Amino acid sequence: MEPRVVTQPGPMVYGICYCPVSKHEVLKSEGVADSKTLTEEQREKIFDKIKENADYIGWSLEIISPMYISTSMYKRPKVSLNEVSHNSAINLIKRAIAAGVQVSEVYVDTVGPPEKYEAKLQEIFPTLKVTVAKKADSLFPCVSAASICAKVARDRALKSWSFPENIEIDNWGSGYPGDAVTKNFLMNSLDPVFGFPGLVRFSWSTAEKILEEKCVPVLWKDDEEEEDKKDDTPSVLQFFARKQKGSTDDKPTVPPPPKKKRHHYFTERCLAPVTSF
Length: 277
Known about the structure:
It contains eleven helices and five strands, in the order ββααβααβαβαααααα. By secondary structure, it is mostly helical. The chain has two domains: 4-159, Nucleotidyltransferase, domain 5 (2-Layer Sandwich), CATH 3.30.420.10; 221-268, no CATH class. The strands form two sheets. It has a three-stranded antiparallel sheet with strand order 1-2-3, sandwiched between helices. Helix 2 (40-52) packs across helix 7. The longest helix has 19 residues, at 141-159. The radius of gyration is 26 Å and the shape is globular.
């Protein structure tokens, strides 16, 4: 079983394919290879063959929306893109096992350092033989098949993408920062106040840079609160009674109550009481 992730803009698609190890050579004979080395037409044909050979190969996908990814990366505590990817892979493996697939070996195209990722998966699935490697989609036929399934699904999702923002854009390129078509898409779809349409991950470093340079600057109130926290933090001495300086009275003074901290529900959502509208 092999998870495979593809990139931006748009949703992230994680896919797995599972088959007997003895069928790896059969997959090669069917033309299965790293999806990046194949044309769209070739990927579609191989995907059809994978579906036709359901007697020995199966596949499953998880499509993660751009909004979910950005929300995860901006939430508190932050969930990194690597962790989102890892969680998706783990869920797909568990889903296959729950469906009755007799999994014995797992081959994974790495997201992050392969050694740490492999150790993480091995701890979660101690009875399985786990192999995590760079460029696994070009090393193991089943990973190649998973990458094809993921790429075909993502291409189809993007072709039928409906913009709720009512914009008309037919081509957004490959999704890589160096692609001129992708750059034009980002600039042409940018709103100076609301940013990009929902197809774009706001947490993508390329998108973040454009937002900072081209959009109306925003100052969040909770950012100011974070900076002022040091001044608002009460001294531990306030919680102990002490004599007033120069006083002969042994009666201790009562320290003022500490400033009440706002609940995180309000600070995380930048909510504050108002008296007028």
